[in-house]
């Protein structure tokens, strides 16, 4: 569904996991901070994720909009977005039955 929305509206899909990996790989200040946290086996804070989102949505490809995939997941994360000036125009929830998720996941290959 994300692919369809991206193509229809010409906007990028933004995944927090992808952003974290890219920031760590690029060695950005936020990426280095996130790497320290992850290397310690801890969860990256909402504050750090919000910083990455703010950084990402200023890029040129987000000028017409963007699709946040899997974020925010909690009310505090949504509140933090608002507090940091990240405006959301629309929310789409795609509800997939558990059986379908298992079916789709079972068909994926896993790298050992």
Annotation keywords:
Rossmann fold; 112 residues; two-stranded parallel sheet; mainly alpha
Can you walk me through this structure?
With 112 residues, the protein is mostly helical. The chain has a single domain (2-106), classed as 3-Layer(aba) Sandwich (Rossmann fold). Helices cover 54% and strands 5% of the residues. It is built from 6 helices and 2 strands; from the N terminus they run H-E-H-H-H-E-H-H. The protein has helices at residues 2-9, 16-26, 29-39, 46-57, 75-83, 98-106; strands at 13-15, 67-69. It is globular, with a radius of gyration of 16 Å. The mean pLDDT is 89. It catalyses: AMP + ATP = 2 ADP. One of its GO terms (cellular component) is cytoplasm. Belongs to the adenylate kinase family. Monomer.
Layout of strands and helices, then pairs:
Blueprint: H1 2-9, E1 13-15, H2 16-26, H3 29-39, H4 46-57, E2 67-69, H5 75-83, H6 98-106
Parallel strand pairs: 1-2
Helix pairs in contact: 2-3, 2-4
Named CATH architecture: 3-Layer(aba) Sandwich
Q: What's the CATH C level?
A: Alpha Beta
Order of helices and strands: HEHHHEHH
Adjacency order of strands in the biggest sheet: 1-2
Number of domains: 1
Number of helices: 6
Which homologous superfamily in CATH is the superfamily?
Answer: P-loop containing nucleotide triphosphate hydrolases
Q: Kindly, what is the distance between the CA atoms of the first and last residues, rounded to a whole number of angstroms?
A: 28 Å
Structural class: mainly alpha
Give average pLDDT, whole number: 89
Helix content: 40-55%
Specify the biggest β-sheet: 2 strands, parallel
Organism: Shewanella algae
Family: Belongs to the adenylate kinase family.
Protein name: Adenylate kinase
Keywords: ATP-binding, Kinase, Nucleotide biosynthesis, Nucleotide-binding, Transferase
